[in-house]
């Protein structure tokens, strides 16, 4: 008899943003699959299978196989599974392996974009919300950048590269930008500057960019 897969949103990174539902699902799962950073958020895990960028698909395939074999599997997804998360990848693998989608449950989490909107006091249903994670078509941002709304973006590359791309495509160097770095962590940093200043600065890869 087939088991069940929970795709669990774990929020932006700090355990403060884990939901009770996420904690309960992981506690009761036979196996928990996720990045080392994600797995380390949970103290009560029966069996864990860590993955990294290079073996992500391989480990997700293993997770689905375990569920086919009758295990209850929790797959951890940073932020919310449906926004730059692993939802689509898990659904594709499950379909390829004939695992019933009815036995997959998604536990939503708090996206770093939501937290960035909160930190910058933006009503995010009135903003352009975009992700470029794993995508190369960064030029899509040019279609909305001047529509009168703030643009909250998850860059696909370094923040300074996205800032330089905007400058190279005619966006004013004095455009106001907020970079939210390592949101929810103790060393969280929020920088308000011009687009030119951001292009000349260094940030970690864990950033959200808000173009005002």
Helicity range of the residues?
Answer: 25-40%
Give the tally of β-strands.
10
Query: For the residues shown, what is the average pLDDT?
Result: 94
Q: What's the SSE pattern?
A: EHEHEHEHEHEEHEEHE
Strand order of the largest sheet: 3-2-4-1-5
Q: What amount of the residues lies in strands?
A: 15-25%
Cα-based radius of gyration, to the nearest Å: 19 Å
> Helix- and strand-based class?
alpha/beta
Briefly say what this structure is:
The strands form two sheets. The chain has a five-stranded parallel sheet with strand order 3-2-4-1-5, with helices on both faces. A five-stranded mixed sheet has the order 6-7-10-8-9. Helices cover 28% and strands 24% of the residues.
Any chance you could write out the topology, listing elements then pairs?
Blueprint (H helix, E strand, L loop, with lengths): L3 E6 L10 H9 L2 E5 H4 L8 E4 L4 H13 L3 E6 L9 H10 L7 E4 L4 H8 L8 E4 L19 E4 L4 H10 L7 E6 L7 E6 H5 L7 E5 L1
Parallel strand pairs: 1-4, 1-5, 2-3, 2-4, 6-7
Antiparallel strand pairs: 7-10, 8-9, 8-10
């Amino acid at each position: 008899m087939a088991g069940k897969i929970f795709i669990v949103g774990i929020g932006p990174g700090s355990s403060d943003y884990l939901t009770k539902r996420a904690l309960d699902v992981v506690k009761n799962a036979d196996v928990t699959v996720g990045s080392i950073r994600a797995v380390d958020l949970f103290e009560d895990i029966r069996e864990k299978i860590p993955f990294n960028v290079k073996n992500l698909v391989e480990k997700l395939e293993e997770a689905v196989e375990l569920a086919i074999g009758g295990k209850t599997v929790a797959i951890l997804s940073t932020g919310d599974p449906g926004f730059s998360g692993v939802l689509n990848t898990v659904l594709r693998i499950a379909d390829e392996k004939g695992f019933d989608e009815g036995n997959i449950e998604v536990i939503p989490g708090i996206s770093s974009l939501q937290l960035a909107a909160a930190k910058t006091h933006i009503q995010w249903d009135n903003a352009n919300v975009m992700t470029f994670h794993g995508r190369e078509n960064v030029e899509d941002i040019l279609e909305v950048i001047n529509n009168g709304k703030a643009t909250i973006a998850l860059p696909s590359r370094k923040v300074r590269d996205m800032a330089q791309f905007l400058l190279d495509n005619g966006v004013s160097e004095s455009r106001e930008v907020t970079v939210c770095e390592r949101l929810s962590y103790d060393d969280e940093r929020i920088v308000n500057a011009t687009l030119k200043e951001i292009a000349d600065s260094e940030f970690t890869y864990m950033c959200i960019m808000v173009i005002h």
